[in-house]
User: Fold these one by one.
Assistant:
Number 1:
Amino acid sequence: MDAYFFIILAVGLVSTAICLIAGILRKAPNDATILSVAAVEVALVVYLVGSVVRVIAGEPIAGEAWEFWGYLATAMLLPPAAIYWAILERTRWSNFVLAAVGVTALVMAARMNQIWY
Amino acid sequence: MEEEHNVNDDQRPAVGKTPDGDHHGTPAGNSSEAPGNPDVPARNTRNTGPGRLLIAVYAVFALSATARAGYQILTKFSEAPLAYLLSAFAAVVYVVATVSLAKAGSTWFKVSVAAVLVELVGVLVVGALSVFDSVQFPHETVWSLFGRGYAFIPLLLPILGLAWLYRRRPVRATAAP
């Protein structure tokens, strides 16, 4: 597990916690929950940029390269999709949808780490 | 709760592109359905409130199961054909469940019930087989070991799905589209 994983682990868990609490408190998606999910996207962009730099620098990916990039690309689609979905229906339930992004992203980041090393 | 759904139902056409855009044409065109009972359109959808979370989780599973089955079949199909065909079947079931839950109307409701029931049977049968016959089922489908590799969510999902479908079952008298 490298630093990129731990960044996504931290950001993902914080985002999931914020969204879960907001959902439990019956709040509609607000700046805090939407921005926390946006932060997950930023963490994934950091992972993307870092990985591109490492590949250009000549570091090999141990597993299937396309599988790694597939995971990363899919993970990066999740926050925008969840935010879009949450804005369409602004009820407490959308906060639970947003909460799912953080944990999903960190599971995918863990898998990406396994593929890389 | 019901009021909340209705408000959201009214907001949706303004927002535009939604999966059940076609559904909104029905109450408008068919005057016998909408005016008397504003609950009817809300009753015949599964994509509001908790349903949105359910659909989101189903969508994630549809995506990951499809990707996984595609990968297995393209790269190492001959190693365990039965398990990988089951993977592909599971992926199809998740895709059908996701789409049908997002759609309005009683036909899609029936499709949802069928998909979720198949999913429940699948996870129970494949889960049991993977425990007793680990040679034919080398623990590589979403449903193996009752979905242990996915935090048992595959086992929980169909149960929650059926509960949700039951709560949002179409009302008999007004449900015919």
Number 2:
Amino acid sequence: MDAFSGFFAILDATLRVSTPLILAAMAGLFSERSGIVDISLEGKMLASAFAAAAVAAVTGSAWLALAIGILVGVALALVHGFACITHRGNQVVSGLAINILASGLTVVLGIAWFSQGGQTPSLGSDARFMPLSLPLTDAAREIPVIGQFYGDVISGHNLLVYVSWLVVFGTWWVVYRTRFGLRLRAVGENPLAVDTAGLSVSGLRYSAVAICGALSGIAGTYLSTAQNAAFVREMTAGQGYIALAALIFGKWRPLPAMSACLMFGFLDAVAIRLQGVVLPVIGEVPVQAIQALPYVLTVVLLAGFIGRATAPKAVGTPFLKER
Amino acid sequence: MSLNTSSIPLPGWIEIGVIPVLNILMALFFAGLIMLAIGVNPLQAVGIMINGAFGYDEAVGYTLYYTTNFIFTGLAVAVAFHASLFNIGGEGQAYIGGLGVGLVFLLLDDFLPAVLLIPIGIMAAGLFGAAWAFIPAWLQAYRGSHIVITTIMFNFIAAAIMVYLLVNVLIKPGQMSPESRLFDESAWLPFMHEFLGWFGVEITRTPLNLSLFFALTCCLFVWIYIWRTRWGYELRTAGHSEDAARYAGIRPRTVIVSAMCLSGALAGFVAVNEIMGVHHRLLLNFTAGYGFTGIAVSLMGRNHPVGIIMASLLFGVLYQGGAELAFEIPKITREMVVAIQGLIILFSGALALMLRPWVVRLYLRFKSVEDVVPA
């Protein structure tokens, strides 16, 4: 039984650390599937995390924090859209600009408003998304293994963790089962065809980046008001890039991308546990090796050594409507 | 009247003079708004920054010391841009360049004289930086993986390697902080105050060292390489059109790899300034974001060495003046400079052409369309 509870604790941690990755990966999926490269997931998450924590600290409302977090994510996404869609600017440059801007601005505003070295005040439990106990948790504990799995791993997360699962399902449904999704995929593969069919390429791409911004906003809000109880400078710590890696790893499809997020989250959870532990055969595993693994795996995948990751065809190229 | 302004040519002084300056002014305007939002008078801030960057000779030393880093990373990004490659990995390449310097010096500094150590250190910085750029370049050229994504990933991998090596391997025994031992003095690049002291000129002690001259030499070298050699011609051709290059007998794959290696070497030279010139030991995070600033520098300088020197100087002023500003006004922190950098990348890079239609319309007020567009 003890072996199980150790393992379940790792799985439980996996779900907690994968949630922002999953939300950000789905955000990136919308943008990239519409043909807009988005390396600014990191910046949007960071800015939203700050905005949400600031709002929660001032108003004490987690829901208002979520709303503002989403709003900030959408606003930055629209800046990205304005540069990439309206002005056909370089999408990587624009994304990078947003990341750097967010990294500087969150600290500048944080210190000016709260004077705590860039942190926001710690949030009380009513200003956060707190763990929920799913129904029947106690009753299910009577059942060995499965009940324990339900109680330890599935139950006891905050609302946004469950929202992220719905988002994955919703993304799959929108992208593959709706007219908007069909058009979205088309505009990322062949915008000229979409334009010829009389649809607005810009309109579709703007809605895609806006959805991307909203989802990154939820991811950022999760970081500062659910997983943690305050905003800390640079708290995204590369998770936006890991989410991008997971998106590529999942070949720009929702469920595989989610699995990649869970895998990267699992590696992260294991890395924390393995710190300083000496394994029987391998010896002490350097934590840095496990932390670098998502990046290494993505490079290897992109190089085509384990399957092929093919990006949406029109990704990164601005569309010029012929006159 | 709907006018397709992008096909109307403008005179050179507007294209490379007026429009870039307008873009920077836009960025600075928004930076001013941010300052107003946190209750700081932007004009007063500009005054403090300029004084903090040029007001006394210590300030000038610091400004030029930052400038040196930005010249290296700006050139690195520019060389790749000319081959139409986006090297976002300058940060990692600089970091690994530092590893090269560190390894060579930790092995050799007891045996060799300064005359040999310093060139070897510079070569190690360049070679290690180039090697770190070579892998993404090779993967782009021969395996088709996208250079932007791989160089981003390589930044993180470089950081993980450096943390591992400094914490576990290269750390000076019996010390808590993850740093190597100090190199022997024979491996130190002379400081500017020492160098000028040999000629009897007294200046204040600052981190500024001889790598500034090396950076300026690199500018000249890059200019010659890109615009005055066959390789540079091949690089620019392949950057404009891979098909045309292939038709002309140029091998685009070789160009990708050589351009990225040159770019990586230039980024690696940040270690010449930081490790050989200032810290004299290997330590964590000495790159401090200079690799990313190089992107802003290159965009602002329009990928030309002269522009890069000017843009580097501007960023040197921002960094040093920003430090002074943070000191003078407690409400402002050094991160203000990071935010300004983001704005500059946005307006000089992604939105570089936003103002052009307006400029064209204004220009046409003074010239008739027939004069400008040949029939």
Number 3:
Amino acid sequence: MKTRRIDNYGKINRDKILSFRWDKKNYKGFEGDTLASALLANNIGIVGRSFKYHRPRGIFSSGVEESGALVTIGSKDRRDPNVRATTQELYNGLEASGQNAFPNVNFDLAGINNYLGRFFAAGFYYKTFIGIPPLEWGKGTAIWMFFEKFIRKAAGMGSASGLPDPDTYEHAHDFCDLIVVGSGPAGVAAAIEAAEKKLDVILVEQDSLIGGNQLAENDFDNSQIKNQLENLGIKIMTRTTAFGLYDNCVVGLLERVTDHISAPNVNMPRQRFWTIRAKHIIVGAGAIERHIAFNNNDIPGVMTVNASKHYLNRYGVLTGKRIVIATNNDSVYETANQLSEAGANVTVLDSRTNLEIETNKSFEIRKGYVPYNINGSKKIDSLDISKSETINKSETINCDQVLLSGGWSPAVHLLSHRGVKPKWDYNNACFLPSDTKENITIVGSSRGLWNKNDCIASGIAGTTDALNRLGLSKTNYFFPKPGGWKNPIQPLYEVKYKKSRSKSFVDYQHDVTTDDVRLAHREGFISVEHLKRYTTLGMANDQGKMGNIIGLSLMAELLNKEIPEVGTTVFRPPYTPVSIGALSGRNVGKHFRPLRVTPMHQWNIDHGAKMIEVGLYQRPWYYPKENETLSDSYIREASTVRKTVGICDVTSLGKIAIQGPGSTEFLNRIYSNGFSKLQVGKARYGIMLRDDGIVMDDGTSWRLAENEYFMTTSTGEAAKVMSWLEELLQTRWTDLNVNVTSVSEQWAGVSVAGPKSREVLNNCVDDSMVITNNNLPFMGVTSTFLKGNIPCRIARISFSGELAFEVYVKSDFANTMMDLLWENAKKYDGCLYGLEALGALRVEKGHVTAAELDGRVTIDDAGLSKMASTKKSYIGSAMRKRGVLKNNDREILVGFFPTNLKETFNAGTIVCEKNNIKGQGIGRITSVTYSPELGHWIGLGFVKGGLDKWKDTNLVGADPVRNKQMNLKVVSPHMIDPKGERMYA
Amino acid sequence: MIRINCPYCGERDHSEFSYGGDATINYPSLDASEKEWTEAIFFRKNIKGFQFETWHHSNGCRMWLVVERSTITHEIKSVKPCHPDLQKVVKNNK
């Protein structure tokens, strides 16, 4: 195979040869190549198959707008699909393959789709799956589900590896005065001007080299510019894409750290996701050359004119021998000169009839001619051309390449991210950026400036604009006017060709043709947003960078409107695709979210605890002995608590110190029950409501001194309650003299529960008199010392229904406390118990937790009406009896037993009447456990009308998800010791 | 990313803050009628343009703030503490 590489051209390093594999064959390229330039140099024309029709596709461009050469890089768990070959730098050992083809891109069996095109036009799915008349065969979800997997396989791009990503990614942050996006002449001029004015500047470039489109010039050398930028202290970030602009001058960057290295250092991240907070943003993102729609304009060998200039001058690849350039503007002539100088036979078709142009006369210019059809399938054989857009007298030119330039589209994407709509410029046939009030300035060809001096001037003006807006100067400036070509551009988007099965592509990547746009119009999808969604124009991962304007112009023509009246769709971030790995950074696996542990975490593990996650907390779940299962273990633990004594880590409860002269009044307002008469040395269980009368949280508050309380909250609601208290004190009750402090991390808490708990504690406290029933009655609180002079707080609080104490010490003493308590508990055959046993004990007692208090439940629903004071007003008191909350058929807390005591059931079961098993039933089961005390399964839940209505009725528990059904009876939620005699012991 | 200029901590990302709600609501007294509370809780304006809203610097100084923000552009005109005494302190520091 002959190489297309030519001597004396390009900036590649010919001393450094790189080997790579393409579709399982070995090839060679040079350092400085992209995969695309290396493939072209090796004369590989077909690099992929198209999305729907499986047509052979080649390389269309030399940059991010590429919509043909999407390839898969790497293998196994490093397989990366849909990579643009035009931006993938070549490295030694690179492995790449074509996509969407079987067995390969040269011979693809699904190429048959090309001939079935009329079945796959826009709206194919919508039409096919509404059924075929008269019986509407194929209607409905089931048939779609069946066909979906085949359709998805046939249509589409590369496939993901499906394996865990072995690479690491980083999140990084930076601040600067000015961030400049793009290192073309405008961006560089802006950055230099700003750095000279003492601004802190970051210059971002998506390419591996700075220079922008100047890299396509044969005499361009960026080393001097680079030195100058570095000497001015400008931070240059290459291989970095500004993919999105966000509020307040925040810019998202993706830095590709190792994607161009064959054997990267394992300590380097593959990519870095940067969040830059700038004071001003200058965007010099350049412009993108458009193609022209005509029949078979996608045959491999079609390319933009500017791309071939890149391949020639940057990579030393002459992309064709007999080249036809079709254009409607002046930008192609320098390229035409250079291609013919490099040895190609060049013909230029210029759709304009009147034009003055200076060339080196080495090629023919056919004024007033346009291309209308390419002959060939896997490569170009010849091109049919015609005078003007009416095809009557046609001619055929033999050629192997067709280069297109339908005009240039400024890259207005980043400004579009900020919601700024671009405005249409008739003179230059393109959208130009509109002004914005935000600190964002657009410079260079992104403003529609076509020559270099104008771009440089706009860069300097852009920095002056930035300095003025930042209040650092008040200098007059002006931007050069858009344009810069000698002859005006003549709009040319499509050359029509009436022949059956003709396909002229608007959006290469999604196989959207001009006929699809016309179909959308015929069927009423005329808004650009509808056009986009109906045809998927511009929805591929190139986001319509090349084709969008062509689609819009066709729709405008069909509607007899101008392009600005039709409008444009909104470009959204990211500008180019960002990998999910980069978005998640290091927040993967164990680090997906923060981990909270209690101060006795290691102690618990050392004593055999199996842990469970509760919110962010790791809590002891159960403490199995030898071969015990979870159920063996929790049943033993719960029984031990009822029989002797158990110890449970309750540190994860929220703890808030409430201090100040207004504390009592404060608690009295936030809790539904009275707190004004709570004595020092006593604790009280309290319920907090939301403004709308629904239960927010429950917990206890301990009065430690006249103006000091210690509040506990549930584990899950701790943060919310803290914020709520702060909100009330800082926004509503600003006259209340109260201070709230979160002390959740400062105190370690443990529950000592069971008939022997007082005896255990007797051995642990300095002075056993303080915990006698007289000195520390039920709900009593004392501050005292554990043995070893450890200060502690003890409250006689019971969640288990047994005689129980909660003991709190400073977190540093947690392990000492655990050692002390455990040593003594063992003497009474006590146990350590975890969350599962805690749950069993509280369900037996009918105590509610987050499973019941789910944000829909009122105090009355929870059977806690007694907790709602009638003697005072409090948060939620006005609203708790409103409208639907006072209905008689609300679901009320009850207990459930299986009718057949040998049966089990699960939380989530729907409770129904016997002959009416459907829908949401009449209630639900929220918590279920085996009760060691009762010897069978029990549950807590809600049922409409409560115990009184259903106590003698057999109900049905329906559990369709687990395919279970059982008979249930409703009982009081207080399933054991309803009078609480044990707690008061 | 909205940047909020916390009077105590300086300019920070909005991810450090939690959104509260409408800062112009005058909550009725606790013994006010159900009707007054209903008005205050459920009948809210959907403002297009600048509105006063509360934000909690939950991953910072824990101050509740009144932020004057445009619901169209996210432009922030002013930020001050909700608590009047804290407003005075911040002013005196400037």
Number 4:
Amino acid sequence: MLEITGLHVEFGGLHALNNLDFTVEEGEIVAVIGPNGAGKTTFFNVVSGMVKPTEGRLLFQGRSLLGLDPNKITARGIARTFQNVRLFNNMTVLENVMVSQHCRTRQRILDALLQTRRFRTEEALVRDRGKEVLGFFGTRLTGYRFDQPASVLSYANRRRLEIARAMATSPKLILLDEPVAGMNPVESAELTQLIGKLRDEMGYTIVLIEHDMSVVRDISDRVVVLDHGEAIARGTYAEVSANPQVIEAYLGQTTDGS
Amino acid sequence: MNWPQLLITVATIGSIFGVVTLALNLQYARGGMINFGIVAYFAVGAYTYAIITQPPPKGLDQYAFGLDWPWWAGFLLAGIAALGFAALTGWPTLRLRGEYLALTTFAFAEVFHSFLLNERRIGNGTVGLSNVHRPFGDWGPIEEKYVFAGAAALLLIVTLAAFRQLLASPYGRALDAIRDDEVAAQSSGKPSADMRRQVFLISAVPVGLAGAVYAMFTTLAQPSLFTAEVTFVVWIALVLGGERSVYGAMLGAFGLVFFEEVVRALPFETVRSAQIAASVEHIITGVLFIAVLRYQPFDRIQRKVRAST
């Protein structure tokens, strides 16, 4: 579904990503791990169109994503969340998910000005669909929460809402940047389960960046380890966690290792 | 003091500037764009209207174009001309943000102002175009000035309704999203640069129309009417009223125009006292400005209204 070959990203003289190959099959959950500064978020930024790669091929469902603006990439079916949660804080919970369906509706300025029938039915549809998406998170984001501004939500709920907003764009592939960061173990376990449901019930393909190894172990089909912008290992969690290069990248060189 | 006359003038001028303030409110509060050259779009509307409706040149006239078309053609074309001017100026400048955009728009307006001052064939140079066609006249028993105030108020109401409709729609929601977090908005599928450009273009239309009404009202299209001062009056109105609400922006415009007109209408015995009054006007404007910003009366009223509903 996602095929990346020979990807280079340079910022000035710094190689943020170096000759990266990466494939994701439909229906997979792939975890990207690696120490801080390994290029994980840069990788997400490239796939979502926020950073233009210096070199390399980027195919999604057989079509190139190179040179597309972020909004076009979202329209192609890739949605993402951010490491440091980015919500529309002055808007309500429901509006946050309604607004991101905009790229799937045929809404035009003239329709809004004239309040055409098409406008009104579409608006009702968007509202219902927004509630449906929020309902996916149980009662945490429904009921009285619909009309609360996003800024008053708890940290965990903000993360959930961000995922809901990504879901509302009707994507095929979702990129989750540290989805359980800052959550307590109970919340983290719950969200892990939910990510599994996202794939099993909603049919999304998922790539996630995560530092919490229990999450990675529990849900990922495959793990890709990045270090200094290069993929140093790939495989199942068990394979990767036994890889000496990976242990070295995480823990530093052992004294007798060299 | 002739209060009825004063109030009619305030209603007319206030409505005209209210339209411009609303447009600025849309650009700044919803689109995040600082336009310090708004007077240029206003002037484009006024000049377009004057040129379209004036008779062809004769005798000592220096201008080269006069189409002598009916008023409604001039009015509509004023809006279209402002839209065109916005497209022309927005194309190179809208890649800029914040203070950089403010500076370039300001520069554009100044360039346009000196163009009007020096170009005789189009706008008749410093003299400008006078005797601009006034369409309405008396409507039966209703005097022309009332008709005029009504027309200006109608333009304001239609602009307000259109903007409100637009902002209450998904389009407005998308604009709010871009204002809240542009990166997140892009990744939710919002073409933020395109939408910002659209807002810039849409909001120029009522400004051009207001310019046309202003030219009808003053029967003039002169460079001296369209200095940077107009831009700043509108910005002050916007800041006074609070940029978060469309009603605040309108109140600010009316309040400012009212204050100016009252000072202007004060009777003076001597030239000296009039001169003093002119400086005092500036001082009082400044003090009021500070007081409003410090105590934010309009915001308070709004909060109260919201709390009671």
